[in-house]
Amino acid sequence: MRHCINCCIHLLPNDLHRQCFRCRGPDHNNQKCPVCRGENRIPLYTDSKQMKWLAVLEVRTDHCESWNGFFCLRKGKLCSLMFGLIIMTLVMVSYILTGAKHGLLLIPSPFHYGAFASNPSLMDNESLSDMKDHYQPSKINISYVKDYPSIKLIIDTITSKIEFITRQRPDLEELRKQEPHMFSVIPNKFLPNSKNPCWYEEYRGNTTTDPYATNSYALYSKRFRIIFDYLRKVFWNHLYHYKDKHYRLRCLPHFYIIGQPKCGTTDLYDRLRLHPDVRFSAIKEPHWWTRKRFGIIRLRDGFHDRYPVEDYLDLFDLAAHQIQSVLQSDTVKERGKRNNIIIGEASASTMWDNNAWIFFYDNSTEGEPPFLIQDFIHAFQPNAKLIIMLRDPVERLYSDYLYFASANKSAEDFHEKVAESLQLFEGCVLDSSLRACVYNNTLNNAMPVRLQVGLYVVYLLDWLTVFNKDQILVLRLEDHASNMRYTMHMVFQFLDLGPLSEKQEALITKSPASNTRRPEDRSLGPMLPTTKAILRDFYRPFNTKLAQVLFDDAFLWKRT
């Protein structure tokens, strides 16, 4: 309904605006009009007729604009208040996030970390990325809180779930079904006149055939091609001819340095190479048992063609040539002596890395691998000897981090990665067995640092289910560093190696240490005291069990 702009009285339905007292025409004088002079009583007309009674209508026309201004003022204040509240909220959120990350909060963070819920719908045939998401931590979690008591709760939960259960060995027929080609290549018996496990294999190629044309180590790595170029040149000179047939000597290692990474295995390898009766594979760490036979070069790069066992055996051809020279010598033939040269292999992943099993082996029991590396090694070499070099797992983890981390390395970053890894490991042990978590490929690839590698006793107990205790020599890096001559003598005795001259022994024991920490990593300093305390608590129950198994309290690492 329209209004008269002069007197604010509603217009009548039939538009009798002309009856408005203040709008009678052009001769209207505001100074003479009684209404315009301030009177407030105006007759109300209905249906063009004046009502019999006077309706009193209070009209305060001079206040209209002030009321509009008042509402505009109130609206402006409300907007300002809302804007202020938003700014205050943003400041508080920033304070909580920044304070939680740097440990500056005066009260505990309201964001609580928790375990990961199990996902029964997670199937073996899901993609690796989908499976990895199952173990992703929340964005705001314990990784950003350097609070020892809080992280100690996680460690207590993990400790309460620790249970060392003896593993059931698979029988030989089950292993044959899994790797029929491997069993068709490696024989049941080896040459009796060789200390090292070797055998003769018929070679059906001719002089124009390249014996290493399809070797995956040569195809996928440029740094190994020089080695194989040399092997091609001398290959035909080392074939054994018998009844118009050609035979090549094939060998497996007599002993394996199986672990652990960042525990001095490279130094031990370099010193053993200097012994006149010891040879190694052409490549220090072939990683064939753990990775290459499954087609893994780097797990993040996916799978390649599987490396057949023949490619692995090619790596021992240089040593096999020397063993064959001894076997063909008159001394061995006439006097009935045997070859004493032995071959070693030093892949530090052999002891612990069974991450590929989930992609190849079925019949898993509660997430645990049905077959392990040691099952197959024992099937072919029940008399193999195994050397394990260990160190304080707390220091091993920090060394591992410094060696493999690519950027932004610092004691603070290491602390955060340790906390995040502990949370991930806790989430696993709440749902699965200890062994299932240790061999869980998804979990191991999700953890920022390799906590599981330091759980030495879990792996050792599994190796002891197939090998006798006297076939395994366990050393400590701390002892090796303080008394190298003593530890090397232990190794020589374990491998039943012949005596050395003083000059040979001095060469082996007095050479500089190998694969030490890089100068740029030393400049980062030690880990934070809080981080060390956390890791001490985490590894303590595992070290205690290890000391019990080995009957040696030195493996408690109390003094380091």
UniProtKB/TrEMBL annotation:
GO MF annotation terms: N-acetylgalactosamine 4-sulfate 6-O-sulfotransferase activity
Keywords: Membrane, Transferase, Transmembrane, Transmembrane helix
Gene3D superfamilies linked to this entry: P-loop containing nucleotide triphosphate hydrolases
GO biological process, one term: hexose biosynthetic process
UniProt protein name: Sulfotransferase
Enzyme class: transferase
This enzyme's EC code(s): 2.8.2.-
Sulfotransferase domain residues: 253-517
Domain of life from the UniProt record: Eukaryota
Family matches, as Pfam families: Sulfotransfer_1 (PF00685)
Membrane-spanning segments: 78-97
